[in-house]
Design brief:
133 residues, alpha/beta, Rossmann fold, five-stranded parallel β-sheet, 18% strand
């Protein structure tokens, strides 16, 4: 019998708790472990960033923005794949997120199958990652 793939783990960072709970529930139903944080600062303070395979990150957070968090992680040398989600798609923010190297840039209303495809892309080797939108 073949070896089962390791359980994936995703950090969800969004200041809307209902979005966090919904994504966490859907990920759990797909066999993906997740934890959610209400801010970028709470995620950083937790100090467990290395425990996650990727981040699902809201662009617009109170305090540090999602883009600022991704830039901070990149500057510190973290290879953490990021999937951005937003309720307000703005072309300039989309371009900035893509330039920062996100795996995906999604609307919060995107079908869950698209979110799962982005999580799968984030778990792929770096050369095989692609932006899903």
């Amino acid at each position: 019998m073949g070896k089962l793939p390791p359980e994936r783990s995703v950090a969800i960072i969004d200041d809307d708790e209902s979005v966090c709970r919904s994504l966490a529930r859907l990920l759990r139903a797909s066999g993906i472990r997740s934890e959610y944080y209400s801010s970028a600062e709470a995620f950083l303070e937790d100090g467990r960033g290395d425990d996650f395979d990727c981040l699902i990150l809201d662009l617009h957070l109170g305090g540090m923005s999602g883009i600022e968090l991704q830039e901070s992680l990149a500057k510190s040398g973290s290879p953490m794949p990021v999937i951005f989600i937003t309720a307000h798609d703005e072309p300039d923010m989309r371009e900035r997120a893509i330039r920062c190297g996100c795996v995906a840039y999604l609307s919060k209303s995107a079908p869950f199958s698209t979110v799962l495809a982005a999580v799968a892309a984030a778990a792929s080797p770096l050369g095989e990652r692609r932006i899903v939108s």
